[in-house]
């Protein structure tokens, strides 16, 4: 069995070398490289295991998106839609994003070529084609965003809006519909991630800070960053503060988001779909 | 000058130089008696990471200031602890580099960079934790599975021994341990289905003197704890530096997870000697006894934490704060368990056996849909060194409060290819999720005080006779705390997470404290 796998790998290695040589000059050729496992359920299952071990840390169990990586059950894919392009995305990473090249995670030598194809096959098997539910009215969603729902008070989309919450310009490209819905309905359940420092294992989250300064002034805001001795926040009036914690009268941090919960009374299902449609359109995902 | 005279003078000069800074095996035995030096990874053979230096103390710690920094300019985690001998600092860095610095100024006197092959198999970064020293050589174990000796004056390679074929998933990351005329190392590779071992090399020649396989072969006692042939690829690496008890001529080593790390199917049984404390004869590598912390592990709970030797109340003990969340105290004369007390949130076990040892609960096994278990895969602590302070009689350990969701992902074994059998993810409800430096009472294992970290950290701990414990955090702070109370005395922002264990030394009557953070070594001393 192992010998057979090696033969397959050798074949795929040469295909991949060719792929790598072509990709710089004539990208469309990549699409002609065939997935040797296309539609093979057994291979998709193996791909699921490889996905869990190598991809799910960022892209979540079931490829539905995690804290860092986009939902891969969505189509079309931002960085190429063909099997060969997805193979390339996995193998070469995506420059300028958190997506590393295969084997560049300092975790050994990475996935074998056949494993990458298995993962591609798995991703194909969990894709949802057009999600009818998400086809709300983007124009009405935009009106809600900057009007009645007041999302724009705290969130920016493509340069317009407030600063307190995360910028949502690419939220729909990187997050599943379920995730976005959960964020709207129950914002405190899973806080959005903020700054990630180069050597730090975990990102700062959008926690809520309640501070009483030395002069008795009270501030509420989101924690931009924090260490054992200092605190950096953006208050609800969009003022930046950085304090030595020892100088404060009081400091309390909670995981109760400053964002109000948009339940069905506040935001009926149809309006929610319209908002999601607006976010999808804003991030280019609704094309 | 005549030619012959020139040669004689040159020989005399060389001889004079060679006589200086010889680190004899005898000096290593009495390392605590020369606190101006730091002669091995954890400071002494007991693994206490404690220094008798007290120039920096409770009264003046607030005056600490940076003295120098040395930049490796290398990326990735900088996990090394330097050695200092008679004013020269020796250390390693990322990508298997080594260097010697003037310990007063941080100015390099030599640098060594190993030419690593492109297809090495480190599991967790291109890291190296440091050197051992003996005679006029420092010893380094490399990511491509060699053990090498470098000349202390020049960094020249004196010998280079191949331990094993790295393409099968083996590597070295630990600082070796020099005992008598031998250099001991343990191998990494628990993520690759290796068969772990501990080796001893002749310090003079690099010749291998013995190898102890951490998994018994067919026919050897303990082999029956593995299902079928699974022992051949059962992991059980030994990737943290051991300790040594000269009185009983025993060296103590700890081992890591069975492979595949997070999937027990196919390797039914206790899987000896994974996740164990091993008592070995340093001359022969013969096993005297063992104690297994976690049987049939499915959560990557390597026991590769320092087995600290402590003599207390007439008893000869080993104390270890284990990655599985328990603080163990063991009689080091016979391996008998005396105490097992949790020091962090634990959910993988629900009961203890007749000997007081926690046993894994069936409900804790990874499942296809994911099973939340505490501690997470990175453990309640990890390789970062703890410290034992004989003045306070407290054991200080970096605790990580983090749980993970463990999911199964079966995969076939393929030599040299990652072999996890499972995946894990940070749990989404994010609680608990923080770190702490915890001071544990040796007698009860109870937490006497804790210094809370904003997030889990990978920094080790140093204690000193000045009444201070030093540690770092993931946010980049290097911190001095009162060893008795845990109160912060001083801190410095290094600009990157601390992934190392600090040390201290003294030159020209001035005490320094050194820690690696980001790409730099930072040295601190009292403000002048």
Protein topology:
The complex is a heterodimer of chains A (287) and B (528).
Chain A: H1 2-23, H2 41-54, H3 56-59, H4 83-92, H5 113-126, H6 138-146, E1 156-157, E2 160-161, H7 171-174, H8 177-185, E3 208-212, E4 218-226, E5 230-235, E6 240-244, E7 250-254, H9 269-282
Antiparallel strand pairs in A: 1-2, 3-4, 3-7, 4-5, 5-6
Chain B: H1 3-19, H2 25-29, E1 50-51, E2 64-71, E3 83-85, E4 88-93, E5 97-102, E6 108-113, E7 132-134, E8 137-141, E9 146-151, E10 157-162, E11 177-179, E12 182-186, E13 197-202, E14 208-213, E15 243-245, E16 250-254, E17 276-280, E18 287-292, E19 308-312, E20 315-321, E21 326-331, E22 336-342, E23 349-352, E24 358-360, E25 371-373, E26 387-389, E27 394-402, E28 404-408, E29 422-426, E30 433-441, E31 447-453, E32 461-464, E33 468-472, E34 477-482, E35 488-493, E36 503-507, E37 510-517, E38 520-526
Parallel strand pairs in B: 1-32
Antiparallel strand pairs in B: 2-38, 3-4, 4-5, 5-6, 7-8, 8-9, 9-10, 11-12, 12-13, 13-14, 15-16, 16-17, 17-18, 19-20, 20-21, 21-22, 23-24, 25-28, 26-27, 27-30, 28-29, 30-31, 32-33, 33-34, 34-35, 36-37, 37-38
Descriptive overview:
The complex is a heterodimer of chains A (287) and B (528). Chain A is α+β, with helices and mostly antiparallel strands. Chain A has 9 helices and 7 strands; from the N terminus they run H-H-H-H-H-H-E-E-H-H-E-E-E-E-E-H. Chain A folds into 3 domains: 2-126, Cytochrome c-like domain (Cytochrome Bc1 Complex, Chain D, domain 2, Orthogonal Bundle); 132-152 and 167-186 and 260-282; 188-258, SH3 type barrels (Roll). In chain A, the strands form 2 sheets. In chain A, strands 6-5-4-3-7 form a 5-stranded antiparallel sheet, with no helix packed on it. In chain A, strands 1-2 form a two-stranded antiparallel sheet. In chain A, a hairpin with a 3-residue loop joins strand 4 (218-226) and strand 5. By secondary structure, chain B is mainly β. Residues 14-19 of chain B have low confidence and may be disordered. In chain B, a hairpin with a 2-residue loop joins strand 7 (132-134) and strand 8. Chain B has helices at residues 3-19, 25-29; strands at 50-51, 64-71, 83-85, 88-93, 97-102, 108-113, 132-134, 137-141, 146-151, 157-162, 177-179, 182-186, 197-202, 208-213, 243-245, 250-254, 276-280, 287-292, 308-312, 315-321, 326-331, 336-342, 349-352, 358-360, 371-373, 387-389, 394-402, 404-408, 422-426, 433-441, 447-453, 461-464, 468-472, 477-482, 488-493, 503-507, 510-517, 520-526. Chain B has 2 helices and 38 strands. The chains are: A alpha+beta (287), B mainly beta (528). The A-B interface holds A 1-2, 5, 46, 48-50, 52-54, 56-57, 60-61, 66-67, 106-109, 112, 190-191, 197-202, 205, 226-229, 255 and B 76-77, 119, 121-126, 169, 191-192, 369-370, 405, 407-412, 414, 416-418, 420, 422-426, 428-431, 433, 452-456, 458, 473-477, 479, 488, 491, 493, 496-497, 499, 518.
